[in-house]
Amino acid sequence: MTDDQTWQQMSCAGNPILQTPNIDRIANDGFRFSNAFCTNSLCAPSRGTVLTGCLSHVHGIRGNSEKADQVEELDSELPTFPALLQQAGYRTGLMGKWHIRQDPRGFDDWKVLPGQGVYFDPEFIEQGAKQQHSGYATDITTDFALDFLKQGVSEPFCLVYQHKAPHRPFTPAPRHAKLFDDIEFPYPETYNDDYATRRIAEEARDMRFEVSLAGDYEDLPKDLSPEEQRNWIFQRFVKDHYRATVGVDENLGRVLDYLDESGMAEDTLILYTTDNGYFLGEHGWYDKRFMYEPALRVPLVARYPKLKISGAVEDAFVMNIDLAPTILDFAGIPIPEQMQGRSLRPLMEGDPPEDWRTDAYYSYYENSWAMRNMARDQMTDPTFQFWTAHRVGPNRGVRTDRYKLIEYYTEDGYWELFDLQEDPNELLNLAGDSQYDEIEEELRGRLRALQTGYDDVMPTASG
Fold first, then answer.
1. pLDDT tens, residue by residue, 125-162
2. How far apart are CA 184 and CA 187, in angstroms?
3. pLDDT tens across 302-353, in order?
4. Domain residue spans in the chain?
5. Fewest CB within 10 A of the end CB: N or C in the chain?
6. Sorting pLDDT into bands at 50, 70 and 90, what band is 390?
7. pLDDT above 50 for 373
8. What's the mean pLDDT when you consider all of the chain?
9. 370 to each of 207, 230, 289, how far by Cα in Å?
10. Residue 267: left (phi > 0), alpha (psi -120 to 50), or beta?
11. Rounded to two decimals, what is the model's pTM?
12. What is the CATH number of domain 362-453?
């Protein structure tokens, strides 16, 4: 698992700039899921979902921050796939980023970064004790992963191998520091979005490069116009994000090579994904949280050579609640009833169930609405700062193959509806347009049905 990688940041997904030969090895020898989605576009909640197969409101981590009255922690009563594999006799290891407040459980060996960690000479918490290591975090995490694999070649194992990269602030390895210097990255079609039909998006102005990131770069030239400064920051920011991803792909290759050389590859299931998507200039933004496509969609490739299927592209809707059930299914371990996802194994075997989902559910919870509503009269003051990240309030929604409906349920019944076929960039909000009344009503019903089915009882726009 990476951190904040976009679903298009793989050459197997058609990226025209970034070459990811080792991610492609997994996809070319197995599967690429072209419609994979996170269920809460934020680091800690997504990691809890992957571990438990449950949505954020079930596993207990809704956001990255401490709430006013409590610290959000993973429900210790919920089964996790590593713990169940460990109970079944698997040797289990966790290496890299963790970003969950409790110490890991269900692992025989673990070495994790504290919090976000740092890229150079990082400290790792190793079985509870801090130890500093010299070098680059992506390389060190892979060294730990390989050490774990080499300790028991003949044993069944589960390795959770998670990178800090490409999380901000990006610091690529010195060997990649000048990569892409000779090209200008293309600006997204929505780079100059005016948010004309999307009120909440317009308020999230501190997700714009020029508003929040100018102070991150000591070498930012002083004589640039505002537009030139914004473009300079975009080019540096996105190139560093790509450079950090190249470091991940290189190190993934080291692990894949070892699996091949040791003879373990044939009977090893590999799932490669990220915690959530990310804006890289779309709508003029960085970061995530919104249900818009760049933040909602995630890369997901998988390989299990014994299936004898290679180069498959699966377009069925997949959510990150599905990863834990998939791993348990391949291991022959019963899937606990608490898990809300479904195993991807039938899709990978070419026998998709007739009742497979045709839509995806999303719910972002972070408690930002109180300050937002208190401060509306200060919205025009460019110096005003909110305490919450990027002014993005709680939102939930449903995405089908053509439409997306988003409910901002603390915003006085504010909704967004997009026709993804006609408007793939999600610029024109159709909510309230009489021509779409029937579609909107149908999607609202579907959203409420999904809430009920997933037992998500947070407030609705109507109370």
1. 998 899 999 999 999 999 999 999 999 778 899 999 99
2. 9
3. 999 999 999 999 999 999 999 999 999 999 999 999 999 999 999 999 999 9
4. 11-175+231-353, 362-453
5. C
6. confident
7. no
8. 92
9. 19, 31, 17
10. alpha
11. 0.93
12. 3.30.1120.10
Q: Which CATH superfamily is domain 11-175+231-353 in?
A: Alkaline Phosphatase, subunit A (3.40.720.10)
Tell me phi and psi for residue 192, to 5 degrees. Answer: -105, 35
Residue with tokens 């269920």: 39
Q: Tell me, letter by letter, the H, E, C secondary structure of the chain.
A: CECCCCCCCCHHHCCCCCCCHHHHHHHHCCEEECCEECCCCCHHHHHHHHHHCCCHHHHCCCCCCCCCCCCCCCCCCCCCHHHHHHHCCCEEEEEECCCCCCCCCCCCEEEECCCCCCCECCEEEECCEEEECCCEHHHHHHHHHHHHHHCCCCCCEEEEEECCCCCCCCCCCHHHCCCCCCCCCCCCCCCCCCCCCCHHHHHCHHHEHHHHCHHHCCCCCCCCCHHHHHHHHHHHHHHHHHHHHHHHHHHHHHHHHHHHHHCCHHHCCEEEEECCCCEECHHHEEECCCCCHHHHECCEEEECHHHCCCCEEECCCEEHHHHHHHHHHHHCCCCCCCCCCCCCHHHHCCCCCCCCCCCEEEEECCCCHHHHHHCHHHCCCCCCCCCCHHHCCCEEEEECCCEEEEEECCCCCEEEEEECCCCCCCCCCCCCCHHHHHHHHHHHHHHHHHHHHCCCCCCCCCC
At 55, the amino acid letter reads: L
* 184-239 pLDDT tens trace: 999 999 999 999 999 999 988 889 999 889 888 999 999 999 999 999 999 999 99
Angle between helices 226-262 and 137-150 (to 10 degrees): 10
Asked if pLDDT for residue 242 goes beyond 80, the answer is yes
Strand-pair partners of 132:
123
Q: What amino acid occupies position 3?
A: D
What is residue 164's predicted lDDT score, i.e. its pLDDT? 97
Task: Measure the CA angle with vertex 113, ends 25 and 391; round to 5°.
Answer: 90
Report residue 67 as tokens.
């709430």
